[in-house]
Amino acid sequence: MAVGGLEFLVALVVVSAILPALRAVRARQGLLAACSAGLLYSLLPNLISWLTLGVFVLSGYAVGRALRSRPRPALAGSYLLVLVAAFLLLKQYSFLELLLPAPWLDHPVAIVGLSYMLFRQIHFLVDSMQAQIDRPRIWDYLNYQLNPFTLVAGPIQRFQDFCGSWHRLEPVPAERHEILITWLRILLGSIKIAGLAAACLFAHEKIFERMAHYGGPVPPGTAVAQFAALFYLYPLYLYFNFSGYCDIVIGAGALLGLRLPENFDRPYLSRNLLDFWTRWHQTLSFWIRDYLFTPTYKAIAEARPTWAPSLAFACYFLAFLFAGIWHGSTTNFVVFGLIHGVGASVVKLWEMTLVRRRGRAYLRQYLQSRLVRTAAIVLTLHYAGFALLFFPDRLERCLIPLRVVASSLRLAAFG
Amino acid sequence: MSSDEFRSEMQLLFRQVFGDDAIELQDEMTAADIIGWDSLMHVNLVIAVERHFGIKFATAEISGLKRDGQNVGTFLELVAAKVGRR
Description:
Chain A is mainly alpha-helical. Chain A is 73% helix and 0% strand.
């Protein structure tokens, strides 16, 4: 069942009609849990996947409870190592081919949404150990991990926030016009996915294939025009597709009583790359900030305060490299992450240089300038677009448009 | 420590961390009102506050301070509660 597809929408109409009629919270939770089970049944291909999912999720709950009653960093660290190793194996990351025998990677386990489950699980463990989660119940935890609105592709919600609405499970839009607005959001999400994103992807694929099959020299005008089309189409596709998906699940969740976090805030209007990551896939970037960047940088700054300003850049690289690798198991995602690491470091260096040379008062003036803001938005949009050239496919395929346009321009310039 | 003393100590920490003597703390201020208050400076601020008052923040508390609806006032409240609990 595809989110936003006809089956999903029909199921949503039926369940959102039944749910408010159920008076007991337990009954409403039961209905939603049945939906989760139905979705999982349609997504998990075999028994071994069910068993693996069970071990993955239940072990996280058990360790979280153990850490809640007695914080033991050694237990947390060991479990996290095993969890991440299991995740890499289950997702068949390509670099493992260098380390493990081939049969280990040739397994039939396929669990949709495992990357999101991993992030939720790590958050649950850390917050449990730090006494930020109070006596979680297994029923709540299973529904937190497996509910149909965040199972496949997020948003990555925090357990405490999930429980805030799960324990009431009352539809968020109360008035008739609020319900209509929520349905409108779901409809817009469907249009974004089925119309806008699909059209952008179709055009992107057509142009890409044309560029991939050029046998000889290409006129520079044609090469540049095709490259420009690819350059803008893919970011548009990605935005329409993922933000449309989020519109649907956030709207659907609200109709059934789950208040989910937003994931996008006009990302292509960001004024720099750090700003971009507070507007693009927000729940992912906030997770990386909170559970990777902050603890790493804090540990460095506490242990070696004089090293901290320089090592902050290493932390940016680590965070963005992680963001890249998390998106996929192939080399192109490493490149994607590194490009963002470079961009974020340059942003911070530029800010530090301005403060050092001209002072904070100038920085304030600089940031308030409309001209600077417009130029910064255009620059950021194109830098983020450049990074996204390395997103759609394996590295050798991603390089094709760059090679075509470069060789065409070289030919035009030097004959 | 009186409430005014606590507030002026916090203001001093903000000024030191952000290198800006013009900062005047108001409860309703957010990260957007202080130039340079990004994720990196947020951690620097947290470390400075932890060191100064001898307290510790949990990961969820650190991230919670950057969420919608949070401002300098809620940050001061959290620190005051922790200092009081010490």
